[in-house]
Amino acid sequence: MFELRSVMALVLAAGFARSAWAQSQQPWPERLWNPQPAAGDLVLPMPCGGSMAFRRVDVPAEGVLDDRKVMLGGADEKFAYAENSRPEWIVGGFADPSKPSLKFYYLGKYEVTVLQFGALGASCPQPSEEGRLPKVNVTWAEAVSFSAAYGAWLAKTASAKLPAEDRTPGFVRLPTETEWEYAVRGGLAVSDSVFVEPVFPMPEGEARYVWYAGTESANNELNGVGLLKPNPLGLYDMLGNAGEFVLDPFRLNKLSRLSGQAGGATVKGGDYRTPAGDIRSAAREEFVPVDAKGERRSPSTGFRLVIQAPSLPTSKRLAAIRTAWADLPKTSAATLAEQQDDPVKEVDVLANAVEDPALRQRVQNLATVIKANIQTRNEQRDRAARSGVRVGAYLAKKLSEDKRIVAFREGQVKTLTDVNGTLRESIRKQLESDKAALEFNLVYYIDMVTQLTTEYPEGIVSSQADILKREFEARKLEPMLPFIDTFLRQAGQLRKDGKLDRKAVLSQIPG
Q1: Has residue 17 got a pLDDT over 70?
Q2: In whole angstroms, how far apart are CA 420 and each of 415, 416, 443?
Q3: What is the torsional sign of CA 278, 280, 285, 287?
Q4: Are residue 159 and residue 49 in the same domain, yes or no?
């Protein structure tokens, strides 16, 4: 029988004083539970003198019902049946009074280790270097039970140290797949164009950030947590090393959404047996919970924890949510589309069904108001899309100028070999500055392409680009037209492939 079942019984019976958890223990050495301490770490205690470190993950949001749309998954056809790009929505449960435009949650800085898992067992484990390995060979149910037992222990013995929302302490559980993938991609620490890349930025090479299959990396062995470099949010080993259970059951992908059938558990991130070429943030596999031998376990699958807040922590919050809910549109755009492609026609149908002339006129007046509102909304949408294309074209032109400047500086450095060393060093420093400006504008440009393809249908972007071309021609700005065409071509490439290669983008900018 799984040892945490007895632990849960102790928790429910409030028998901590009789359990091993209450034993007086010396604190564990920090290297065993937080080998890479950093500013912003949330450290929570554990039984047996242990601790666990978490990192804050911010999400833009203001109102009580606000959340953020993110694109998860990837564009690799080989894995499209499970990982095709799809929209999801996310928000943290905790609010920061100093940053009212953000909400956040906490994710385990490392995978739960052997030592940490043992701290909630029948007796306290002996701290050791082996205890720094991720805890694997667990079932999904055991991971859930561990999170529940740890959360109960924190609530009983250290609730003041838990983050709170409206004075209601948060709780511990497995992360949802969206929480996990949003964090591994880098969240707000990366730009939109980087967020949708297959992996987070690894400037020192993949082997410095990921334990994957091969003698130059994991060499077919599980490794201790925190030995490599973190992702942009300061999270370690999210890709490779041990695969990680999430809360959601596995579902196949159906083009832009997940299928309705819920299967086994979902495992994210790949592990130490995954080839380097298959390491990706979108990776998701089904873990069937049983086989002919009974409950399944894997020597390469573990988990990490999340701390979230209740959606309804207080009656005051419930009242605020009811007010916000009342202000939401009562019928979604999708539902309207299902009812009638043209909502004005839907109102006309209702008007024709009304016998009273005065009431029929009121319904027809309502149709006029709806039509005017739709026209205003569409005009605003079109102006915003056209403005985005204009910014994209001007950024493409700036990149063209940046390319010429960098090429000129590189030529200077190569040819001025016999001039005064101070002058040559000054030119070299200017070249570095020019390259940095080029890189900054390139990221900004790809972000703009990503934003427009995410927020507007292809037809809207294309039609507004045509209008913008006519505007430029009328203003004698024909040299800008190739930059609009480049922007549209790269937007089409992003829609097709789900990503853009920076070098390819830059090479396609007119010189």
Answers
A1: no
A2: 12, 9, 35
A3: positive
A4: yes
**Both 303 and 433 in a single domain?**
no
Taking a C-beta distance cutoff of 8 angstroms, is the pair 113, 132 a contact?
A: yes
Among 316, 331, 366, give the residue marking a domain's end: 316
E-strand spans in 40-178?
A: 42-45, 51-60, 68-72, 86-90, 94-96, 99-108, 164-165, 168-169, 171-173
Q: Is the pLDDT of residue 16 over 70?
A: no
- Residue 450 phi, psi (nearest 5): -65, -45
CB 199 within 8 A of CB 239: yes
The 3-state DSSP class for residue 267 equals strand
Q: Is residue 299 part of a domain?
A: yes
Residues 6 or more apart from 422 whose CB is under 8 A from it? none
For residue 13, give Cα distances in angstroms to 7, 154, 160, 194, 413: 10, 15, 21, 49, 75
Residues 302 and 443 in one domain: no
Domain count, the chain: 2
How far are the Cα atoms of 83, 227, 331 from residue 241, in angstroms, in the given order? 20, 11, 46
Tell me the pLDDT tens digit for each residue of 399-426: 999 989 988 988 888 777 655 677 778 8
Give yes or no for residue 181 having a pLDDT over 70. Answer: yes
**φ and ψ of 292, to 5 deg:** -65, -20
| Mean pLDDT to the nearest integer, 29-40 | 97
Q: Which residue has the tokens 């992996």?
A: 199
Short-list 275, 268, 193, 277, CA closest to 235: 268
Confidence of residue 59 (pLDDT cuts 50, 70, 90): very high
pLDDT at 210: 98
Give mean pLDDT, residues 235-264: 95
pLDDT at 382: 85
276 secondary structure, DSSP code: G
Please check whether residue 195 is in contact with residue 443, taking contact to mean a CB–CB distance below 8 angstroms: no
| Residue 34 included in any domain | no
Kindly list the distances between the CA atom of residue 202 and the CA atoms of 35, 299, 361, in Å, as whole numbers in the listed order.
Answer: 20, 27, 64
225-257 burial by CB neighbour count: b if 16+ within 10 A, else e?
A: bbebebbbbbbbbbbbbbbbbbbbbbbebeeee
Contact 239, 206 (CB under 8 A): no
SS (H, E, C) 165-224: ECCEECEEECCCHHHHHHHHHCHHHCCHHHHCCCCCCCCCCHHHCCECCCCCCCCCCCCC
- Specify the CATH number for the domain of residue 285: 3.90.1580.10
Do 103 and 218 have their domain in common? yes
Which of 272, 291, 316 lies at the terminal end of a domain, its last residue? 316
**Angle at CA 102, nearest 5°, toward 101 and 106?**
170
The whole domain housing 70 covers: 44-316
pLDDT attached to residue 140: 97
